[in-house]
Structures are given as structure tokens and as C-alpha cells.
């Protein structure tokens, strides 16, 4: 009999209960007991949602991030966070730099979880790092899960992936040297789980779908020769987001009881692993997509698994491809989607049911799910034949793309000279990334307007006042290049999707990005094109309010693609081209409206990068082309900016340079400007704005701190090509935090400007 399970479940709550509870706690409006009560209810719902499966996942819940949780359970707390305070205070100070109680301190670095839009907190290891296991919180969660009466499968981040995701701030930077000591803690961890009556434990090693060198392969072997020696507990070694590739033979020899593979992102590797994985060990096949919202083709899934089931019998497990952390929670909440489109979708709760149905068909025969199979077939056929999907005009325009469409008229040096004359900006020009605080009043305006309780004209008048206030605030602060603040935008991707054709939207399709920050990705279901201008009216209005340049703010094609749920019937490269052509038209209209600077944000540029180096060139080919297709139609004196945040850029600096943006702004504050080290050897040709303060933390940096970060960049980049800006948009911050931070930032830039003049 095929066994069913998931690799994890979303932890924000069906209606984002945890998000609201966290923000209430951080604001000092509730206590830890009240926060824990909400968390307990979220976990109970999650276990109930999985109750028809053979195993329920537990220990995968987190208040902020599961990588941080792993570090805390291992006793890893950097020195700057060590105070005599409640554990939850230390936890949130590591995550946010601030908590109710405790002093403000720079938070842990944040970056993307493999090739997803989920952000994890980077553990900081020290020279001679010791590990002090404390898993009381997870053990209690497991006991609570066992009380449901279902067999429980705890979820752990594996030791080798943990070290790969960590950084060391001092001494020898090789994190692998900590493996022997770390394994002792993991052995204690597994023994503690066994003592709770746990039979199976899921240990995630997503690093196994990357191309590992000999040292890291050796580390995997060392780790699981050790952990696999325990007879009292069974390990399900879990991989996802791709195929095992060259690591397949290594994994096949490990003494673990089971292996999970991703049969969605790694579908081409399923046959190979089925051939080499021992038949007396469990093979868990992730056949239901944990990262997208399209309904599973049940017939195709069953046909894929039947030959494996015939060979493996009881040793086949059926699962989601990865954790459902990356999926919205419940499609049944969606009461505004049209019937046809809704029939094409499945969220986490529905995906659990799909896992159950696929296993039922294998165990009891395909006729046992005949009704559900007919519904699945109908949905698949509907999507394939719907007239809403394809637009001949879009296809014709894609076919007509030429190489010249992806190149600016002149090189950077020529453009830069024209732009300096055109813009007349000072040394160290100051700006922000785009958004300003989305206050409660702004959100209330949007709710009232969308609910029909506020007229279109009254809404527009109110948004105009918000934009005028943001322009006034920036002029008072002394910023050099202004933005309109994006008061009219709910989300940097959803806003554009609402104005482009080929997108659909949910009401409750929320997915955790980090901590309490949730996003609601649009659904790309058909060909994308622009039927009307997207941003011109509001940007033109803002520019008319000031003599300083106001940036036109666009979200780039790769990010719109990456932060949406994309269709899966055409290539991602083609979708990116469609979006790029729509943005190209918008750039032209912004120029006609007199906008001199246009920012095309690409924070997801590295996020979509394939995890295997051998597959990355093909990605860069289409991703770079998409950005250039969107931007290259601009005139030489129009300055094109882009923004990237919370990514490791050093390995992709060539591709970033190939974008040929006149100015790029990047995150550097949480990483203590480590990202700038690449410029020690690489001569970046254009202008750059290294983020000088962390907007994901509520703390306000002082002038000296900002000035020191700016000064450090001058060792790598000449002052005339440096911009001064925050790490990211200011949407999630309050004005009480934004004003002093920006005031300090402007003061720091002016100090350095005066110093340069004096020299």
C-alpha cells in the first residue's frame, strides 16, 4: 500500500492569523501567551488538514523562519544578541533587530531560500562554534501532534544543508569544519525523537539538488553514515527543487531508510532514481506540485506512479514535491474567482487531497476515484482548449523580436555623459527604492474603494493627496531623486498584474515571504499584454509637483514572472518576453510624459536561477534578454535604474553587468557590505547604490553607521558612480522610523559630499 504524506504545511494560518498575532505582539498589544495560543490553533488546523494522510508532518511550524529555528535549537546565538532576557525576545531580535524588550541590534542577514521567494535568516557561526541542543519547543509540538491520534513525522533541516546556508564571520570561513561537532547534536536530536516514540523523521537536504564538489559530497556521506547508524529511528532523506543529478550514486549508497525526490521540478530524474534506489527502501515521490497552484492531472500522476508501485509495493510513498509552505492554503475561501478558472486550481488543502486520491488509485484501483478522475480530466481539457489562454497578436510580436530590440542606442559612457548633463545631480545622489509607508489610512482607502463604499473620484483625490504628501516629505528631507511613494499600489507585482491582460487574482492566496510578511502572487493563466498605460498618470502627477526628478517605477519582467504563479503550458522564457514587451511600451509612454529616470526592479533576478551551475547559462540568456527588451528602447538621456535585494550577487555579477542598467541598487547592510567584495576584482562598469540601511528592521541607523558603509564602498567604486539609498522599499515601515533614517542617510551623504569638495 502506497503511504501518503506532505513535506510540510503553511504556517501563517488559513486567514493569516499568525501574521496578525505576530504584528500585535511586536507592537506590544498582546503578550507571549496570547501569541502562543494563536500558534497552537494554526498548528491544530494544519494537522487536521493532513488528517486523511498516513503521516502528518510536525515540527515544521515557525514564528519567523525554520532556518533560524534550527540555529536556535542548536544553541547558535551570535554574541551581539546574548542578553539576560526571555528566549522569544532573543529570537525576534535576531530576526528583526528589535523585539518587545531587549536592545536594538543589527539583525541576522536575510537571503532567498534556494530558488524561491521565501527569505531565510542566515545563521552566523563563530570560530570554535559550540552546539547546545534545546528542542523542548519542537518536542512539545510533536506531542501535541501525536495527540491527534495520527502517526507523526517530524521535519528537520539537515546538518549539511544547514552548514551550506550558514556563514562564519570570523577566522576560517569554511563552515564544513563544524560538521563533526554538529553531528553530535543531531544524534542527540534523533535519540530524543526516538524516545518520544517517533518511527520516521524527515531530514531535508535540498543542497543535494545542487552540484556539490568533493568536500560537500564527502560531508553528505559522513553525515548520513553517522546518522543512519541509529537503529531506533528511520530517516527519510528529503530533496526537492530539482534532480539529484551527479549526486545520485552518492545518495544511493547512504544507510538511510527512505529517500524523497521531487518529481515535478525533477521529473526527468525520476526514472533514473527508481532504477538505482534499493527496492527494500522507501522511495517517496513528490508528484503533487508544492510550489504552483495548478490542479494536478490525476490521470497523468497515477500513470507515472503505477509502474513504480508495481516494482516497490509498500515501499512507495506519495507526497507533495516540496513543503506546501510555498502554496496558498485553501481554495475554498475563494468566492470571487470564476468557475472555469477556479476549476484549474488547487491550494494546500486541495493538494493534500490530491495526494490522498493518487495513492487511493494506486492502492485500490483507478476505478476507486472515477468521479474525481473525470473532474480532473474535465479541468485539464478545459484549460487546454479555453479561448482565454492564447492571443495571436502576442505570438506575432514575440516572433518579430530582433537582436536590436535588446540593445540601447549607445554604450554606458555615452549615455552617462548625457544623463549627467540632463539631470544635474550632485555627488553621492540620494534616493529611495520606490515605496513609502503603506499606512493604515492608505489600506483603508483601498478597502473602501474596492468594496464600492468610496467613489472612483474620491479615491483618486485621496491618493493624489497621499502622493503630494510623500513628495513634500522627500523635499523636506533633502533627497535628490524622488519617488511618488506607490500609495496606489497594493503590491509591486499584483498591481501590474491587475493592469495587464492574462492575469487573474485571488482574495486569500497568501504565501509567506518572511516572518509576518505575506504576498499574494497573481496567477498568469494566459498570454500577457498591455492594453493601456499602467503607471503614467500617477508618475506624471508626482513630477508636476516638484522640480526634482521623480523616478518612474516599474517591476521588471523576471520579477513579475517569478513572483506570480506562472502558467506551465509554455516556457518561462516566453512568458518573460511577453511581460517585457508590455513594459517596453510603458517605458516609451513614461518618456513621452517627461520622466527622466525609470526604475525597472528585478529583485527576483537571482531567485529564478537554476540550482545547477550547468543549467544557469540558458537562464541568463533569456532573463537578461527580457530585462533589456523592456529597457533598451529608452533614449540615451533617460536613466534606467534597477534594484535587486537579498541575493548573493557575487557569482552572477557578469549577468548583472549584462543588464546594462545605468544604475543598480542592491542590498548590502545586513551582510555588512560583504556583497561589495566582488568589486575588489570585478570592474563594474556602471553606477551602483549599495543599500546603506536595513529596511526590514525597525531600528534607525545613525549618521556614523551609514557614513561608514558609504565610505567602505569607495574602496571599490569611484565616488562619481555611487548612489546612496536604503536596501529596499519602505512600504512595511512606519513614518516614525522612515523620517529619522532617511534624514540620517541624507546627512551622511552631504557630509561625504562636503568632504570631497574640501579635498
UniProtKB/TrEMBL annotation:
Cofactor: Zn(2+)
Keyword Thylakoid: no
GO BP, sorted A to Z: methionine biosynthetic process; methylation
Statement: the UniProt record of this protein carries the keyword Transferase: yes
Source taxon at top rank: Bacteria
Binding positions for Zn(2+) 2 per the UniProt entry: 658
Transmembrane segment boundaries: none
EC number: 2.1.1.14
SUPFAM superfamilies reported in the protein's UniProt record: UROD/MetE-like
Binding annotation for Zn(2+): 643, 645, 667, 728
Segments forming domain Cobalamin-independent methionine synthase MetE N-terminal: 4-311
UniProt signal peptide: none
Pathway: Amino-acid biosynthesis; L-methionine biosynthesis via de novo pathway; L-methionine from L-homocysteine (MetE route): step 1/1
Domain Cobalamin-independent methionine synthase MetE C-terminal/archaeal residue range list: 429-750
Binding site for 5-methyltetrahydropteroyltri-L-glutamate: 16-19, 112, 117, 517-518, 563, 607
One Gene Ontology molecular-function label: zinc ion binding
Protein name: 5-methyltetrahydropteroyltriglutamate--homocysteine methyltransferase
Organism: Aliidiomarina minuta
